[in-house]
Design brief:
348 residues; alpha/beta; TIM Barrel; six-stranded parallel beta sheet; three-stranded parallel beta sheet; 12% strand; binds iron/sulfur cluster
């Protein structure tokens, strides 16, 4: 096999490598600096030095599911639950708009209290109030009809991490009643309906191997999503994985760079999990090729309760403060925070 530097060069030039070659690139930290530099070059060529800010509103931490890694899983009796009303969610988006945000990510556990018409009303009203904004939903697995209804109400994007493309690994992370096939079906439906669609994984989940990550990369290349969410696995208290080790942030950054080279136009967040795992994690993510950051717009009183993992950052600052902090952090590494819609280049 060619040496790693040659593989990185070929990935840069052709956006493609074989599975074995991808594994070789992910296996060593020796060329991390070079890999990040190439990924950064591609990101800057596509997006300039603009980093898109998305305001995230975590509107309910109720969930019917029991994913083993998640702090708000149904079985966690220590989790203090909250649920915002549709009107409160709309007001939260209004105030985010005043702060300057033009993309809202509405996220929750799989909370069946909200009916299809509730979700449609929140999407439709936010879009009517702010026609220049994009709305992203991240509310889990739904039927095709429900996805179609949200889309018809004006929803632009949908995030649904696939978690792992290996069905056996999926079973290690989820109870039997959750279906890997259904998750993948959801992603295909979303893309087919016309959403800007996001998938993604955590790095370092229990049982994950480099081969699994390579399977994820092969899937991502073929599925060609508009967004990819990648963060390190961080354990959450009172979950079956509470005592498992954290995911490796260096590998997370390497993976961000590989994804940027494989899919130059993809919207790639430097995730809050990355920023929680290490100081300046989000800045490092940007320097590894990420081009999106998602500050928290949720009411401060709820933020500490939406703990998908322990040690989450930004749970006490209000939206305006978060926005200023991120803008300054990005400026310190030579990038510019922008609050426009920030669509995938193919949607502009
Ligand atoms: S990861 Fe999502 S679906 Fe799974 S328990 Fe947590 S909120 Fe629910």
């Amino acid at each position: 096999m060619a040496d790693i530097k040659e593989l990185i060069d070929r990935l840069y030039e052709t956006a493609s490598l074989t599975p074995d070659e991808l594994k070789a690139v992910l296996s060593t930290d020796e060329y991390d600096e070079y890999l990040h530099e190439k990924a950064r070059e591609v990101a800057v060529r596509t997006f300039g030095k603009d980093i898109y800010l998305r305001g995230i509103i975590e509107f309910s931490n109720y969930c019917k599911n029991d994913c083993y890694y998640c702090g708000i899983r149904a079985g966690n009796t220590h989790c203090e639950r909250y649920r915002m009303t549709v009107d409160d969610i709309i007001r939260c988006a209004d105030s985010g708009y005043e702060t300057g945000f033009r993309t809202f990510v509405l996220q929750s556990g799989e909370d069946l209290t909200y009916k299809t018409e509730d979700i449609c009303r929140m999407v439709r009203t936010i879009k009517e109030n702010h026609p220049d904004c994009a709305v992203t939903l991240s509310i889990g697995e739904k039927s095709r009809e429900e996805y179609q209804a949200y889309f018809d109400a004006g929803c632009d994007r949908y995030l649904l991490r696939h978690e792992t493309y290996n069905s056996e690994h999926y079973k290690m992370l989820h109870p039997n009643k959750m279906s890997w096939l259904n998750r993948i079906r959801c992603l295909h439906d979303l893309k087919d309906i016309g959403y800007q669609t996001g998938c993604g994984i955590m790095v370092g989940t229990p049982g994950q191997t480099l081969d699994h990550i390579v399977e994820d990369l092969v899937f991502m290349k073929e599925f060609d999503p508009h967004m990819i969410g990648i963060g390190p696995f961080l354990p959450a208290a009172n979950t079956p994985f509470a005592d498992c080790p954290r995911g490796d942030t260096e590998l997370t950054l390497r993976l961000l760079s590989v994804i940027r080279l494989m899919l130059p136009k993809v919207l790639l967040p430097a995730t809050t999990a990355l920023g929680s795992a290490e100081a300046n994690g989000r800045e490092k993510g940007v320097l590894a090729g990420a081009n999106v950051i998602m500050p928290n717009l949720s009411p401060v009183e709820n933020r500490g309760k939406y703990q998908l993992y322990d040690g989450k950052i930004c749970i006490s600052d209000d939206a305006a403060l978060c926005s200023r902090c991120i803008t300054a952090r990005l400026a310190s590494i030579g990038y510019r925070a922008v609050t426009g819609r920030g669509d995938h280049p193919d949607y502009c």
